[in-house]
């Protein structure tokens, strides 16, 4: 079954400063952890895709206007310090395996090498329903 793992970062709830306040070595250690995790997941043959996401100030919310044109607003979280920092799409044998992987990813190092223990949302990816014939 496929799962999407969404990495949520919250400097407020985690008690960590924003990444722009980390040292170069702390950022390098964090990125090295993520790259190594991606390589290990890929080596197992279970990685479909993984990406870090741009900072929240670059995100936008788009809705269709009355005429169908794009209505673009800042987003998604202008008043909060929580944001999605990255994702993985993996193909794993069970939800328990996805939970174990999410727990491992959650331990990515932050300032001082302390594990961030970030929330990782685990969402099963639904298979498309068969096309109904008339």
Using brief descriptors, characterize the structure shown.
134 residues; alpha+beta; Alpha-Beta Plaits; 4-stranded antiparallel sheet; two-stranded antiparallel ribbon; 3 helices; 6 strands; 27% helix
Explain the layout of strands and helices:
Blueprint: E1 2-10, H1 11-14, H2 24-43, E2 47-52, E3 60-64, E4 70-74, E5 82-91, H3 95-106, E6 120-124
Antiparallel strand pairs: 1-5, 1-6, 2-5, 3-4
Query: What count of structural domains?
Result: 1
Order the strands across the largest sheet as they lie in space: 2-5-1-6
The radius of gyration computed from the alpha-carbon positions, rounded to a whole number of angstroms, is 18 Å
Annotated CATH topology: Alpha-Beta Plaits
Shape: flat
Q: Which segments are poorly predicted (pLDDT under 50) over 5 or more consecutive residues? A: none
Number of helices: 3
Span of the ends, CA to CA? 29 Å
CATH class division: Alpha Beta
- The number of E-state strands comes to 6
The CATH architecture category equals 2-Layer Sandwich
Secondary-structure element order, N to C: EHHEEEEHE
Average of the residue pLDDT scores: 87
As a percent range, the share of helical residues equals 25-40%
Structural class determined from secondary elements: alpha+beta
Q: How much of the polypeptide forms β-strand, as a percent range?
A: 25-35%
Structure description:
- The protein is α+β, with helices and mostly antiparallel strands.
- It has a single domain (2-52, 80-124), classed as Alpha-Beta Plaits.
- The chain has three helices and six strands, in the order E-H-H-E-E-E-E-H-E.
- The strands form two sheets. A four-stranded antiparallel beta sheet has the order 2-5-1-6. Strands 3-4 form a two-stranded antiparallel ribbon.
- It starts with a strand and ends in a 10-residue tail after the last strand.
- 14% of the residues are buried.
């Amino acid at each position: 079954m496929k799962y999407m793992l969404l990495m949520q970062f919250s400097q407020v709830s985690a008690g960590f400063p924003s990444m722009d306040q980390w040292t170069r070595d702390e950022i390098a250690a964090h990125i090295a952890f993520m790259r190594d995790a991606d390589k290990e997941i890929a080596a197992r043959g279970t990685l479909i895709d993984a990406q870090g996401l741009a900072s929240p100030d670059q995100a936008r919310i788009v809705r269709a206007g009355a005429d169908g044109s794009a209505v673009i607003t800042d987003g998604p979280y202008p008043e909060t310090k929580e944001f999605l920092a990255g994702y993985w799409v993996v193909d794993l044998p069970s939800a328990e395996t996805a939970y174990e992987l999410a727990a491992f990813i959650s331990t990515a190092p932050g300032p001082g090498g302390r594990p961030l223990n970030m929330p990782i949302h685990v969402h099963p990816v639904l298979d498309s329903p068969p096309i109904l014939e008339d």
